Amino acid sequence: MTGGEDTAHGTAAGRPGWARELLEHLRPAGRDVRRVVDWLAGAVNAEVALRGGAGDLLAGAPLTLDEALAADVASGRIASAAWDGDGRHLRLVRIGHPTGACVLAVFRRTPFDRHTSDVVTHTAQVIELLLTAHETQAAGVRLRRATADLRLAILQLLMVEDTVSARRVAAGLWPGLLDAETACVYVLESDPSVRDRLAAECIERTQEEALVVRCPAVDGHVIVLSPREATAADLRSLVERHPDTFVGGSVWQSLARTATAYGQAVSALAVARFRPDKTAVYAERTHPERLMDPAALRTWAARVLRPLDALPHHTRAELLATTRLGLEFTAVATAKILGVSRNTVRARMDRVESMLGVDFDDVTVRAVVHLALHTQINLLDGQGPADSAASARRLTELLSGPAVSSWARELLDRLDPDPRNVRRTLRTWIAEGANAERAAHALGMHAQTVREHVRSAEPVLERQLLAAGTDLYEVALAHLAVGDLEQPRFAGE
């Protein structure tokens, strides 16, 4: 092709390959509207501006235009416009896209001929395609983000035992997902860089019959809640195909005990890291509360938590749910799981501390409140309300029963063969609020030695101790049962 003056200036309009150059901008690596506008400016030896419907500059150089004329083109009243005079030649072309319209303005010192006009027209079409593709992609990203946020919101409602609201929210997009009364929670761990792909595969493998959530607290974790037994096999097969990916699962729990199931899955995940198949399910073991008189235990728990009974139901449930998670995880992790600030978590737990008349810096206090809270959860699982006729036993009596005492002695006696007196170190560390520095000062040793003793006790007791949670609290209760630690006092008792 030739183009008169354009050919003389060596512009793209005068070169046979200009169309191919333009089409190159539609390749995945070259899809950039600003680059297309810059290309057009060089191709037709012009100043080019791409303006939004409101007159804002999206790409190119700012140009002085007749705003009324530009507005008519943007609104669609006219599709294009041309103006020539005083040695200035201007073309305005409307570019429609899904969420509005733009105006492509091209200003030249030489007249537009047929070839340069063709270049402008075809460039406008390419820009329209790029804008449409970009907005479609952006809409898809927004939809995926909104869906992920909705999944997280459902999980957060389940974490605070609001199963009614969780079911209502889920019903719109995933009908029947939460109709079951029980479910399992799984936690998958991978490198954070591949977590999004792993989450997408979880959704595909479970055929959207499970709640798949990117963990808000741990970057490499994906949480899966499912009422289907087949989900365990689906996730195992997925883990087999991904190196350095592990999965831990809970036992079946009611939806109201999602927080408990999540804690179990995290505990199982720690075991999965050392398994050849990279999977583990939480091992149901003898827990101290199962060795106590159920009616007396429920009555005791109701009495311990009685100071909170005067609160409105919603406030009480919110405080207890936050405290239950706050005793298992750090304030920062709890805040991310619940979708609130860490200051809110601390304020709620401070209020519970004040009403119960206790100090959560004391590990034994945390262990006893943890016991009371989990006893209360069991009321939702068909175990019935606290028995007002049951004897009003104190914690001392509950822990001194023969079954509990035998369990506690057997557990702690495992530490006796260690010549370093790890049992004494562990007892002192718990008494000092699980603080290695304070325990080291009390024992006259280095803080790192204290940590090594505690760490060495973990495989012997088959419990995680350095990470606060159920395992640590059970060991604290064992010390209380054998009389190695002083029992805390509560306002409710």
From TrEMBL:
InterPro entries attached to this UniProt entry: CdaR-like_regulators, PucR_C-HTH_dom, PucR_C-HTH_sf
PucR C-terminal helix-turn-helix domain mapped to chain residues: 331-374, 423-478
Domain of life: Bacteria
Pfam families linked to this entry: HTH_30
Protein name as it appears in the record: PucR family transcriptional regulator
Organism of derivation: Streptomyces griseorubens
